[in-house]
Amino acid sequence: MIGSLAGVLRQKAPPQLLLEVGGVGYELEAPMSTFYGLPPVGERVRLLTHLVVREDAQILYGFLSAEERALFRNLLKVSGVGPRIGLAILSGSTVAVFAGAVRAQDTSTLTRIPGVGRKIAERLIIEMRDRLEAVPGAQELAGAAAGSALAAGPAAEAYSALVALGYRPHEATQLLKAVEAGAAPELPGAGLGTEELIRRALQGAARS
Fold it and tell me: What is the CATH classification number for the domain harbouring 56?
């Protein structure tokens, strides 16, 4: 089993990348959360990996963090969830937001991820509840998210919408935190509806 690769990044074409290690080019697939943290082409990077062996192919997946790889591996154990949906979850969410949605039994947040329908979302909530313990830091991250701008409800929906619009997960988080911090005292950020949160977040992005 290949646990990690360190080499020169030669190509980035989401979800695929090419990493040259000792003169050998390894083709990998990675979630957008990993692509956001990759250095420019030509620079060195180290990725944690997971190998999926199928009858017709052997596919290597790459991740920048142990938390993302652990979540991916546990997602593959859920009935009906394969690598494609696993990548979609890590591309459209974060470990913290996903763990928070599972703990809160928030199917609406999960179904906003492309490829995740209601049945899969319900299955994820049931089967991932205990498996989150195997994901390093997931419980702590979920607890932090529950008290932040990404708690279940309008903020979580606004977060998913911003990610769908092309904002990186950490960018969406910062935009929503700025909205919460800048809201009028009589109408705190946590009390805003989804559409208003998105509108204010986009206004903040335009000003930055």
Answer: 2.40.50.140
Rounded to two decimals, the pTM is 0.69
Give the orientation angle of helix 169-182 with respect to helix 154-164, to 10 degrees: 140
3-state secondary structure 28-78: EECCHHHHCCCCCCCCEEEEEEEEEECCCCEEEEEECCHHHHHHHHHHCCC
Number of continuous H segments (helices) and E segments (strands) in the chain: 10, 5
pLDDT tens-digit profile, the chain (208 residues): 789 999 999 999 989 999 999 999 999 999 988 988 899 999 999 999 999 998 888 999 999 999 999 999 999 999 989 999 999 999 888 888 888 889 889 898 898 888 899 999 999 999 998 888 878 655 554 444 444 444 456 776 777 777 767 777 677 778 888 887 776 444 444 467 778 888 888 888 887 6
Determine the Cα–Cα distance for residues 156 and 198; give it in Å rounded to an integer.
11
Residues 78 and 133 in one domain: yes
In terms of residue numbers, what domain contains 114?
A: 67-144
Q: What is the DSSP letter of 132?
A: G
149 part of a folded domain: no
Does residue 56 sit in the same domain as residue 91?
A: no
What's the CA gap between 149 and 198, in Å, rounded?
12
Q: Which helix (H) or strand (E) is 13 found in, with range?
A: strand 4-13
Q: Are 62 and 19 in contact (CB under 8 A)?
A: yes
Domain final residue pick, 118, 144, 170? 144
